[in-house]
Design a protein that fits this description.
Radius of gyration: 25 Å
Largest sheet: 8 strands, mixed
Structural class: alpha+beta
Number of strands: 39
Shape: globular
CATH topology of one domain: Rossmann fold
Oligomer: single chain
Number of helices: 11
CATH architecture of one domain: 3-Layer(aba) Sandwich
CATH superfamily of one domain: Alpha/Beta hydrolase fold, catalytic domain
């Protein structure tokens, strides 16, 4: 680390708060920082931001990084294409627009007309398009916006032809999409009861309910379709079957990757008289409805097959012994299945990168859709069969990799060929960068894969600045994807390492289970194992190794830096879950209990207390230079997590390494963050690492 002057941290008041957890007394002196809107907390935020901005302003490279990041960011961006009716829909960004714009086309490669520009909805770009769904006939757009990064959604309806909004406005929706009726007369969505005054950003969210909204009617007329007052943690994702006959409910419970499946006649649902059949009533596996042929329902599942498979269930004979396997489990993890025309399209993960295979209705392998290189694909959802058009079945997908900007393709089933529809052009020499994959050995001997991206001319040049990024939780997989922000880091000579830790879904459900609940320490061991491998191989050194992660990845960084502070030259935890004893008491935090456990349970308390970043900081220890980032409107991981961790770390720090927190105003957990704010935040992170890892000059 480059030498820095000793910082004078703003004083943070300590209280005498002590909690008794099953006989163990735990102090929480900064509990008052959980109240984000109190005058005392607001004053603390101002003081901390002033300290952080003053520190960053003294880094000469900061302005040059900001300029270069802005230059690189200014290129056309394209989302995957969706066909509805005889129209095609896509998100685009001309370069530096704060929010992506939704456009509509008559052909997938034709002229585009702006349908919805979220940049016109606020002066500062903090209102984002969070979700959207086009009616089966392509005539109406249901779209949800969120403000300042909140998870709360406001739904509206726009006529595609005229581009004008209808009078429909729906409030207090969260964790929901819009599922249209076959005749485009309305859609299903999920909402919660309005929160008590002052609780919108911190109050717990229970009892999601499915409603049907009819176009042209006020929300007060919406029909309550399904609710479970006896199961406050249950949430519902409604899907209309391919033949338009059934309403299928994916019943989720928190962030548990497993779910239940209920269904009922669509005719009853639209009358508010839905009686469901609990087809898969137990929380025992992951089931995703893919499509149906009358009474034959197709599900992607990991039941008894950790890598996943496609099965068929005849709802007239739903017993397990009557289930049929259409696509069997294999060595690779089945990530997604879509039914396009008469073909099942299967997206697989092979050692954490994607491949796409095609199967017949009977499960015969028809071939693969070739991808350009090792990377990630995103499939665009096909139109429902009840909304079929005269168009030949086609698949739209995007592809990207660390050094391959997101490009859009159309696959034609008749010719078995992909057509490149959109390819961005960036002023950057991608040919001078290499991507490789290797495996590190974790504490228990498990082989943990990781990708390394670096400038080819620097490979093997000795220890160099390296950024290690990971997530490790909630069955979420990290595959090679493109991020324009990382190009500046690579260009400056930094190496990027992305690790695939247990807790993710890269190798199926067993890989996930191996890193959850009582096994969570394995995730941190995997991360530390990759760090130690990079150091042992001479790729980097502790003084030149930075670690980064967000949300659950912020927890990862917090745990790693408290367990092995000497191993890292800098730490950048973003919107992290830092207080593992109280996370379940705010907003949707209770939903993470299936992943983490709860301090309300004695044995789980012991596990959580052992690694909780907030509770494992020790006075006098020299912790690595740390830049904590969060948003003041984060209603998923409430900012009190980061506030309390920063205050505790500043008080505990045993050396001159800086401990800073950057609190973004009018921002939430990350989704929908305006481009201008993203560039400012990323520039500050890179500038901090440039100074801390000795990269200046």
């Amino acid at each position: 680390m480059q030498p820095t002057a000793t910082l004078s941290y703003p004083p943070t008041r300590r209280s005498a708060q002590v909690d008794d957890y099953h006989g163990t007394l735990v102090t929480d002196p900064y509990r008052w920082l959980e109240d984000t809107d109190s005058p005392a907390t607001q004053a603390w935020i101002e003081d901390q931001n002033a300290l952080t901005q003053g520190f960053l302003a003294e880094i000469p490279a900061r302005s040059a990084i900001h300029r270069r990041l802005t230059e690189l960011w200014d290129y056309p961006k394209f989302g995957v294409i969706y066909q509805r009716g005889n129209r095609y829909f896509q998100t685009r960004n001309s370069g530096l627009q704060n929010q992506d714009v939704l456009v509509v086309m008559e052909t997938p490669d034709g002229d585009a007309r702006t349908l919805l520009d979220p940049n016109t909805l606020s002066d500062d770009g903090t209102v984002a398009l969070s979700s959207w769904a086009v009616s089966p006939d392509g005539q109406l757009l249901a779209y949800a916006t969120s403000a300042s990064g909140s998870d709360w959604l406001t739904w509206q309806v726009r006529a595609v032809e005229s581009g004008e909004d209808l009078d429909d406005t729906l409030e207090w929706s969260k964790f929901s999409g819009a599922e249209w009726l076959p005749d485009s007369s309305g859609f299903f969505y999920g909402r919660y009861a309005p929160p008590a005054e002052g609780d919108a950003y911190q109050g717990v969210n229970y009892h999601q309910t499915v409603y049907l909204h009819r176009i042209g009617h006020p929300q007060s007329d919406d029909l309550r379709v399904y609710a479970r007052p006896d199961e406050k943690e249950w949430g519902f994702h409604p899907t209309v079957s391919d033949d338009g006959a059934h309403l299928i409910l994916h019943v989720w419970q928190g962030t548990d990757s497993r779910n239940r499946i209920f269904y009922g006649p669509l005719a009853e649902a639209v009358e508010g008289d839905l009686v469901v059949t609990e087809l898969l009533p137990e929380l025992e596996a992951k089931y995703h409805f893919v499509g149906n042929d009358g009474p034959i329902f197709y599900f992607q599942t990991d039941w008894e097959t950790p890598q996943g498979r496609l099965i068929a269930i005849d709802i007239r004979q739903p017993q397990r012994e009557a289930w049929q396997t259409i696509i069997p489990s294999g060595d690779d993890t089945l990530a997604e299945v879509q039914l396009v025309g008469e073909t099942f399209v299967a997206l697989y993960m092979h050692d954490a990168h994607h491949r796409i295979a095609r199967y017949s209705r009977g499960g015969e392998l028809l071939g693969e859709i070739g991808l350009p290189t090792l990377g990630s694909a995103l499939l665009g959802s096909p139109p429902r069969r009840f909304a079929s058009t005269e168009n030949t079945p086609e698949l739209f997908y995007s592809f990207s990799s660390f050094a391959w900007p997101t490009s859009i393709y159309r696959y034609d089933f008749a010719s078995d060929a992909s057509q490149l529809l959109a390819e961005p052009h960036i002023d950057f020499d991608f040919g001078n960068y290499t991507t490789s994959q290797a495996f590190a050995t974790s504490a228990d001997g498990t082989q943990v894969p990781y990708f390394t991206v670096q400038r080819a001319d620097l490979a093997g040049s000795g220890p160099r600045p390296t950024l290690l990024y990971a997530y490790g939780g909630f069955d979420i997989s990290l595959t090679p994807g493109f991020a324009i922000s990382r190009l500046v880091w690579l260009e400056m000579g930094g190496a990027l390492v992305v690790a695939n830790l247990r807790g993710g879904g890269e190798y199926g459900s067993e890989w996930h289970k191996a890193g959850m609940l009582a096994n969570k320490q394995r995730v941190f061991d995997d991360f530390i194992g990759v760090a130690e491998a990079l150091i042992a191989q001479g790729v980097t050194s502790p003084a030149k190794l930075a670690i980064q992660g967000g949300s659950n990845g912020g927890l990862l960084v917090g745990a790693a830096m408290t367990q092995r502070p000497e191993l890292f030259g800098a730490a950048v935890p973003a919107v992290g879950v830092m207080d593992m004893l109280r996370f379940h008491k705010f907003t949707i935090g209770w939903a993470w209990v299936p992943e983490y456990g709860s301090s309300d349970e004695p044995e789980q308390f012991t596990t959580l207390h052992a690694y909780s970043p907030l509770h494992n900081l020790r006075a006098g220890v020299c912790y690595p230079p740390t830049l904590i980032t969060t948003g003041d409107h984060d209603d998923r991981v409430v900012p009190g997590h980061s506030f309390k961790f920063a205050a505790t770390l500043q008080a505990a720090q045993g050396c001159d390494n800086p401990t800073l927190i950057r609190i973004q105003q009018k921002a939430g957990h990350g989704a929908g963050k305006p481009t201008a704010i993203l560039i400012d935040e990323i520039s500050d992170v890179w500038a901090f690492l440039v100074r801390m890892l000795g990269m200046e000059g």
